[in-house]
Each structure stands twice: as structure tokens, then as C-alpha cells.
Write a structure and sequence with these properties.
12 helices, about 450 residues, two-stranded parallel sheet, about 80% helix, mainly alpha
Length: about 450
């Protein structure tokens, strides 16, 4: 009886040993010892590498549009983040694909050892003539070992099925990461175009404000001289107290309006300086936009612009991902298949809605461009009329028909007409940039 207990203990030990070999992966203890769950596994060099770079503030005395666009692209945190995201997703996709390829399964083979006299006598490994004398202990051991091996085969088969599902999920994950990587690259291109368009608009706003400021300063000088003239006329009885009061009120209102515009100039300058990473300089000179012949915008095919847009490209990537997942999935589960079909329908619905939204935005950009070009034409005509009127009045002044003060007022109207034309041309130039951005895939 004691001997039998000893043999059973040996068989149990064999079972525990084989189970341990199957369950505990090689090197897992060492890997567990190396893990630091407090994040201290990063070296100092790795920590420095993960710090987001901060651009140095530079001093500038004058800026132009090209410099602004170049620097904006270099210092844009959004573009930097999207570049890092794209690199990360590419590396992650490669890593997941490698992991999926390394997941392998083996055949769950098993053996059956002899446990009866007939099995012993029929085996070439057992040739003792009287097996009934010694067969008992060996048969008992063989029975235990056979059960252990069979159990291990069942466990291996189960693990193989689990590994197969893991490999399937990792392949799907890798494909999803690939799609995310493509979308990240599209977003990176979209951000680059968006930064240029945004900074063009900011630069145009600052330039317009500074031109308004200059015009209002000139008008302030004109009103100041007008107040002085009214006071002189009052002394000679050529003007009333009301004339002087009205002139002073107009001067005060102009001073108030000019103060508001000056504050808006400083605010716009501060915002632009922050976005460009340059030192705030209230005396910063802003160059005019490059000279260009302004012509009406030629409309492109709306459907072509929609299909080329970054937004539609990303939508198609998502639809292709949904279609690939459906074709790759062989799970007969009805709910799972229904979810995949629903996802495809959802992505198609998003594309249909996106197409409508983009068409509306495209039409809005073209309409805005048409209206701004018409406004530019009106201001150009007004400018030409103002110059023509000034030349006529100049001749009358030289002949002594009108006073110098009247000529100065008309000269200011010429300056005002020139400025209004410049402002209209700046607005239209921004609209043209929007149209160009649409042709490159960005629909604002």
C-alpha cells in the first residue's frame, strides 16, 4: 500500500512538472524583474528625447508674408505633433506585424501507452513472457502518463486556438494602425496647408489694421487743422461757436476711434508674434503683399475638388478599412457580422454627408471671392475718380479759385481712396489663397 502511494506521488509530480513547462514562458521571471511600474525604466537620455522642442524667440524689425509663412511652418506645434504621430504609427504598425508573424502554433500530438496484457504482449518494447506478474505497477504509471499527455494535448489545442485568435486580432490591429498612419499623413499635409492659409489671413489682418491706422492718423491731422481754421474764422466772424464745437467733437471722436484701432493693431501683432515665436515688437514693420495682377477666380469642377479634398481622402481610408475588416473576418457570429455591415453603412453615410458639406463650403468660398472681386473693382473705380477729381481741383487751386485747405481735404480723399483700394485688394488676395488651397485639398 505504501509503494502505491509513492508511485502516485511520482505521477502527480510528473503532471505538475509538465504543466509548469507549458504554462510558464521562458524568461518571464527575468522580464518581470526588469519592469518598473513607476515609469523609472526610462533613462535620462530617453527622457530628454521625449521632451517637446521649444523654439527660441527671435527678434525681428521687419517681416513680410514669405518670411511669416516659412517660420509658421517651422514652429507650428500642430505640424510637429502630427509628424511625431505619423512616425509613431509607422513604427507601431511594423511592431504589430512582427508580433503577429512570430505567433506560431504547433500540432497537439499525444501518445497512448499499453495498460493491458494484450497491449503489452502486442508491443515490441515489451517481450517478458509473463506480463501478469509485473504488469500492474507499470500499467498504473502508463495510465497516469497517458492521461497527463492527453490533457496536455487538449491544453495545447486550446492555446493554439487562443493564439490563432490573437494573431487574427493583431492583423486587424495592424491594418487599423496602417489606416491611422495614412490618415495621420493626410492630416499632416492638411495642417501644412492650413497653417499657410491661417497665417496669410492673420498677416493680411495685421497689414490692413496698420493701413487703417495710418489713414486715420492722416485724417486726425486734417481734423486738427480744421479745428484751428474754425477758431481763426471765429475770430474774424466767419464762423460760429457751433462750427468750432462740431469740429472739436469730430476731432475727439477720431482720436477715440484711432485709439481703438491702435489697440487692435497691438493685439493682432501680439497674436502673430506668439504664433511665429518671435519677440513682441510694437514697432515691427509689416511689408505689403507681393504685387500681383488681380483677376476673377476661375471656378473648378466642384466634384473634382470634393474628391481631392483631404477630408474626403480620410473618409475613403475609413471606408476601405471597414470593408477590409468585413472581408477578412470569417467569424460566423451573426452579431459580429452585423456590426461590420453597420460600420460600412455608417462610413458610406458619412461620405455622403461630407460630400454635401464640402460642396456648400466650396460654393461659399467661390461666392465670397466673387463678391470681394466686385468690391475691389468698385474701389478701383473710386480711386480713379478721386485722382481725376484731384487733378481738376489742383488746376483750380493754381488759378486761385479754391483755398489750400479745400485742396488738402481733396488730397486726403485721394489717400483714402488709395487705402480703400489696398484694403479691398488685400481681402481679395486672401480669398484667392482660399481658392488655391481648395485646389490643393484644403477646403476651409
Amino acid at each position: 500500500m505504501v509503494k502505491m502511494k509513492t508511485r502516485i506521488s511520482a505521477a502527480s509530480a510528473l503532471l505538475l512538472f509538465l504543466t509548469a513547462l507549458l504554462i510558464v514562458p521562458s524568461g518571464i521571471a527575468a522580464a518581470a524583474d526588469e519592469v518598473d511600474y513607476y515609469g523609472e525604466w526610462l533613462s535620462e537620455q530617453d527622457k530628454k528625447a521625449q521632451q517637446f522642442p521649444v523654439s527660441e524667440m527671435v527678434h525681428m524689425d521687419e517681416i513680410d508674408l514669405e518670411t511669416v509663412l516659412q517660420r509658421a511652418t517651422e514652429v507650428s506645434n500642430n505640424i510637429k505633433l502630427l509628424t511625431l504621430k505619423s512616425s509613431y504609427l509607422k513604427a507601431k504598425s511594423s511592431d504589430v506585424n512582427i508580433q503577429a508573424s512570430e505567433l506560431s502554433t504547433g500540432e497537439a500530438r499525444t501518445v497512448t501507452l499499453p495498460t493491458t496484457a494484450e497491449q503489452f504482449m502486442g508491443s515490441s518494447n515489451y517481450t517478458v513472457p509473463k506480463p501478469e506478474v509485473w504488469m500492474g505497477p507499470v500499467a498504473e504509471t502508463n495510465t497516469v502518463v497517458t492521461a497527463v499527455v492527453y490533457g496536455q494535448a487538449k491544453m495545447v489545442s486550446g492555446m493554439n486556438r487562443l493564439i490563432e485568435k490573437q494573431r487574427f486580432q493583431m492583423i486587424v490591429t495592424a491594418k487599423q494602425v496602417d489606416s491611422e498612419s495614412i490618415n495621420a499623413q493626410i492630416q499632416q499635409n492638411e495642417a501644412a496647408k492650413g497653417v499657410r492659409l491661417q497665417m496669410t489671413g492673420q498677416y493680411a489682418t495685421l497689414l490692413s489694421l496698420k493701413k487703417q491706422e495710418k489713414l486715420m492718423e492722416q485724417y486726425l491731422e486734417l481734423l486738427t487743422s480744421k479745428v484751428k481754421a474754425a477758431k481763426v474764422k471765429l475770430q474774424y466772424g466767419l464762423a460760429s461757436e457751433d462750427d468750432v464745437t462740431n469740429a472739436e467733437r469730430a476731432l475727439q471722436k477720431q482720436q477715440d476711434d484711432l485709439a481703438v484701432v491702435k489697440n487692435n493693431v497691438l493685439l493682432s501683432l501680439a497674436q502673430l508674434s506668439f504664433d511665429l515665436g518671435i519677440e513682441y515688437n510694437p514697432d515691427l514693420k509689416v511689408a505689403d503683399l507681393p504685387e500681383a495682377t488681380l483677376e476673377p477666380v476661375e471656378r473648378a469642377d466642384v466634384e473634382t475638388l470634393v474628391e481631392k479634398s483631404f477630408a474626403m481622402q480620410m473618409a475613403y481610408v475609413n471606408l476601405n478599412q471597414a470593408g477590409w475588416e468585413k472581408s477578412f473576418t470569417t467569424d460566423p457570429n451573426f452579431n459580429g457580422r452585423e456590426a461590420l455591415n453597420t460600420n460600412i453603412a455608417l462610413q458610406r453615410g458619412k461620405i455622403a454627408q461630407l460630400r454635401v458639406d464640402l460642396q456648400k463650403k466650396i460654393e461659399a468660398v467661390y461666392t465670397e471671392a466673387d463678391n470681394l472681386y466686385e468690391a475691389y473693382r468698385v474701389e478701383r473705380r473710386n480711386r480713379d475718380d478721386a485722382h481725376a477729381d484731384y487733378e481738376k481741383m489742383k488746376i483750380r487751386f493754381e488759378n486761385g479759385v479754391i483755398a489750400k485747405h479745400d485742396l488738402e481735404q481733396l488730397a486726403f480723399k485721394v489717400t483714402q481712396a488709395d487705402t480703400m483700394l489696398e484694403l479691398a485688394s488685400i481681402k481679395y488676395a486672401v480669398a484667392v489663397e482660399k481658392e488655391k488651397a481648395m485646389e490643393q485639398g484644403l477646403i476651409p
